[in-house]
Amino acid sequence: MTRRPVKILVLRAMTWPILVTFNVVARVWTLLGSTSRRGARRLADSGTARQARQAAEVRLRAIAHAYAESTPLVLRLLVIEDYCTRGMVGWDLFTPVRPAHRVSCWMRLTAYYSSPLPPTETISRILDAGKQPLSGIPITHETAREDGRGELTHAGHTFTWGQPGSPVSEPERPANAYRFVCEPPTASVGSIRRRYGTVFVLTLPSDSYYRIP
Known about the structure:
There is one protein chain. The protein has about 210 residues and is of the alpha+beta class. Helix content is about 40%, strand content about 25%. The protein has five helices and nine strands. Strands 1, 4, 5, 6, 7, 8 and 9 form a seven-stranded antiparallel sheet that branches. The protein has a two-stranded antiparallel ribbon with strand order 2-3. The protein is elongated.
């Protein structure tokens, strides 16, 4: 058996305490520099956050209703996902990086519709509505093209609909959501499909409505 070089043993003996010390310092720094769960919840529940949250929801709901008001679509189900994340210290090699925000909140809305018209005609009417003056629909014949898989997208608006063999899936409550709204609570994609046929889905871009540096 060959004996390990003395230098390697000495180097390991010196390195181990340094690594242990760094690990302890990193844990303490992460704990002190990050927003606690209780602190993030308190900030997310503040009056300012609630006002910003309400304004964001009003904006997103208005867009969802605009599609129904200017097209054959009939709004059947609204799903709102609300997220608030606490700021966490990061690391760039051995250099700590402070979080940009103590807490960040954003909201996402998904709307489910039915239509009395066939899918092809419904899509055509949506694209026509996007060309109207002051329309809140950014998807038009010029800006978006159907990709053959049942999806249109432009300016963060994504519009999909059920295809043969590929129906629209049910919304699922995210485990890390701060708030989850399903309106009406008794509605489901399956019930919409059974009663009205093809289900059309509008997913809007996330609205970052509240941040504390």
